[in-house]
Amino acid sequence: VFLLIYSVxxxxxxxxPPIHRRIAAAVGIDRSTIFEHPVLAxxxxxxxxxxxxxxxxxxxxxxxxxxxxxxNPSGYGVDEYIAICMMMGVAMAGCGLLLGVAxxxxxxxxxxPGLMVLxxxxxxxxxxxxxxxxxxxxxxxxxxxxxxxxxxxASGSSFTEACQALIRDNPTDDLNQELAxxxxxxxxxxxxxxxxxxxxxxxxxxx
Length: 207
Known about the structure:
The chain is mainly alpha-helical. It has ten helices and no strands. The protein has helices at 2-9, 19-26, 41-51, 57-69, 78-103, 107-110, 112-154, 159-169, 174-187, 192-202. Helix 4 crosses helix 7 (112-154) and helix 5 runs antiparallel to helix 7. The model has no long low-confidence stretch (mean pLDDT 83).
């Protein structure tokens, strides 16, 4: 136990919030997630510290792609979502342990590792499913939106004005939300081409 704890905590890791959360706080955006909950925040801070130590690039890349594909309405970072997965694994194992004690069965203790794995990968599967569903919705909306943008530009509007008109018409549409992000990036100095490339990187859709 000592060697396990020492191997995890021997190197200090900064516990400051991720950059996107610091930017949100600086511009006055108030997030309401499990990481800001007054009771759970200390526990999630420990989980976040441990999550930063998981150096497994394929897992991090998958979480990043699925967060972008799902729209990430809560604004989670990769480390934050991995921390949530870790806590779900611990919670599932804890529930299995309590159930084993309640029914006085030692057999349930044998499946605790399986419950922990299931709890860890459950949020990952849910996130991947939401990313796929949102991608399908965007794929269905894309031809219609491109036609509207082309027609609006043909009438004399600029590309930015055409996108703004499309967003005003249906601001909750998934593709329109991505266009809104792209327009915000352009306002902050990103080139139009790079903003559109960023959409293609966020949405796992070939077209």
